[in-house]
Amino acid sequence: MQTASPNPASTTASRPALAALAFAMLLASLGISIATVALPTLARAFDAPMPHVQWVALAYLLAVTAAVVVAGRLGDLLGMRPVFLAGIGLFAAGSALSAAAPTLAALVAARAVQGLGGAVLMALPVALAGRVSGGRTGAAMGLLGTMSAIGTALGPSLGGLVIAAWDWRAAFLLLALMALACLAFAARSLPAEAIARPKGRACLDLPGAAVLAAALVCFSLAATGGREGFAPLHAALLAAAAIGAAVFVRIERRSPSPLVRLAVLRDRPVAAALAMNLAVASVMMSTLIVGPFFLAFALGLGEAQTGLVMAVGPAVAALSGVPAGFLVDRFGAGRVMLLGLGQMTAGLVALALLPHLAGVAGYVAALVLLTPAFQMFLAANNAAVMTGAGEGQRGMISGLLGLTRNLGLMTGASVAGAIFALAAGTRDIAAAEPGAVGTAFSTVFLLAAGLTAASLAAALLLRTGSQPEPQAR
User: pTM above the 0.85 mark?
Assistant: First the structure.
């Protein structure tokens, strides 16, 4: 991957713009994580059962997943800067509407609006980072990864403090105020002359966008809502998603201005990068889904102890994102990607085995090995794809990166949970023997290690079949 030498002056001038992009990425992550801690409070406030209240979190995730590709494409068509600023404004409006919602249904609708803004905040910072990074694309991607991890880790604790001091409405009001501050900062920091509006008439593929959104919503509901007793509905949603995907491909082939250029997906490096992004996201999600059950039922930790151990992953991710980006700029995206995938494979094997030998210490040691490797992969993969993206396609490709990551997270949550229950021999994990829980835990992460090893093999094959990477700086 070729990297331009950074100009010191341009690098200095780009720092406020990068800070604005990082602030937006933080907001998008907080939008997901800050609401989770409010769910019990919302159940009491609206006198609603937990399955209904969970739609407060699900509505945001569904909106982000359904709209992230459209958000990226709008950036290509209308200009990155105006769409980015509009997305921040929409996120602020959705947050304010959430704070003022009089009913649970109104809150769910407001969260969907907030998620539409969040889709812009997830897609466009990745597309914009390369343009304002002064040639240090890897460092910019590492910074965005760090802010995403900070938002994920900070949300529950920040939300809990705000709700304890005031109420749940204050948590959403805080997001609205932060979004307004981000909007003002971004409007001053993002240089309009450096992010010019594209020439020609803008034309969004509305039929393709509608079909893609419907297919993604069906898949997301199947992945996040499939439960025992609803197997026919679960299968119907998956079938609808598959049919929608086929119809979408047919529409894109005939569209004069497609939402997703299928030729890009036939490009081997891009297709491989998107596939690896999905696989790695699903693997990392499995640590969040399976980990608490193992810590509680196999190692016998209490809720507070489990929470502290689970916080190690996001904390290490927040600390390792920026160094991972600097490694990409120093040694090249291809080398760092291979290193990240190799270390992830080792970390997953360690996670499957070490806790049985050393208990909590082994679990923490495996996380400390695994999580920086994930940040290395993320920074390298994003930098490689976005550096090679052509003009007029950067928003679309960044949207596809966001989409595959979200789909990977949802798929990982569903599949890891199913494998864990199958290997434990029961869906009632609390009633399972500690040994069975431990065996199931090891099974999940040995399979996950196999998935990352397959990704590593694919990356090696792709690298040997391409031109040698230029000597890193």
Answer: no
